[in-house]
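Quick one, tokens below. Sequence please?
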């Protein structure tokens, strides 16, 4: 088995390209985050594994894949009876148009399809999954016209109470014997995965110490946002967000078509040197995940180029 280049490498499948399509499927959680065009075409029969969809907002590049996804779940070769819950920002007219379209055109679904409007700070328990997991929504900063949400996957973990942290194992065992396990340990919440959708930089407080933050990074520099919409984030501020939030891994997504892969990797190297975010930086470029510290694929490509030119 090859060692993964980054945590969750074997758990995540996705596609992201600003304006065109964005979706990320977390296989272990059976959760699809956003549903941009092409999601069913890419996942094919893996769509039957999806139990929940969390939509960040109603822009076409994040929801256009829903029609096909639900159609394939209904007709494709797989478990056509598995329920599907779709969570979306409340009162989103664009999503509600799609719900209406599907209600009119898909009257006899083979599975239970539930549309669940949610707002910020809502908690959805994932009781069907192993471990104590839940999702908590938070507000992001995208369009003035509609609510946009990000999602934290939170795990309840257990640790020693701080006053016992410096004790030896022997002393701890003694305390467990005299006081009981519950007296010396406490529960705490750990964000194990964050999906931010489209947004200006997320408030670090909302994603504090997340183990894996998926943050949009549409532009390399501020000046590149020439339409001046100020709805998206650029590289430096995303790295600063990750640094301030002390995240362990940062996945950059939703990159603009104007830059090629090499331009991204060069810019990321340079900016990481300056900002020092102290986390692993991964880039989702189209449907490929790149560990930005790993330069071996560049060497492979260079070797291929040399080979071709000597032919
Ligand atoms: Zn958007």
């Amino acid at each position: 088995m090859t060692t993964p280049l980054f945590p969750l490498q074997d758990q995540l499948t996705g596609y992201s390209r600003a304006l065109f399509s964005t979706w990320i499927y977390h296989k272990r959680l059976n959760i699809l985050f956003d549903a941009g065009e092409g999601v069913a075409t890419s996942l094919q029969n893996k769509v039957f594994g999806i139990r929940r969809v969390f939509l960040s907002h109603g822009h076409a590049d994040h929801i256009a894949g829903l029609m096909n996804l639900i159609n394939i779940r209904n007709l494709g070769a797989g478990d056509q009876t598995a329920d599907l819950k779709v969570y979306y920002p409340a009162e989103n007219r664009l999503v509600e148009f799609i719900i209406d379209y599907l209600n009119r055109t898909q009257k006899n679904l083979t599975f239970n399809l539930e549309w669940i409007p949610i707002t910020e700070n809502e908690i959805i328990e994932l009781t069907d999954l192993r471990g104590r997991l839940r999702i908590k929504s938070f507000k992001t900063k995208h369009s003035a016209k509609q609510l946009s949400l990000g999602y934290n996957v939170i795990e309840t973990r257990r640790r020693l109470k701080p006053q016992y942290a410096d004790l030896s194992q022997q002393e701890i065992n003694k305390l467990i014997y005299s006081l009981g396990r519950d007296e010396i340990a406490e529960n705490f919440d750990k964000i194990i995965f964050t999906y931010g959708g489209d947004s200006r930089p997320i408030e670090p407080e909302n994603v504090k110490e997340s183990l894996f933050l998926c943050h949009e990074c549409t532009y390399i520099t501020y000046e590149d946002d020439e339409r001046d919409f100020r709805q998206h984030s650029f590289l430096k501020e995303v790295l600063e967000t990750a640094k301030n939030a002390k995240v362990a891994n940062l996945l950059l997504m939703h990159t603009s078509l104007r830059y090629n892969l090499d331009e991204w990797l060069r810019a990321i190297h340079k900016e990481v040197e300056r900002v020092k975010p102290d986390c692993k930086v991964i880039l989702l470029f189209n449907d490929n995940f790149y560990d930005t510290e790993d330069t071996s694929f560049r060497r492979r490509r260079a070797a291929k180029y040399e080979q071709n030119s000597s032919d």
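The mean pLDDT is 91. The chain has nine helices and 14 strands.
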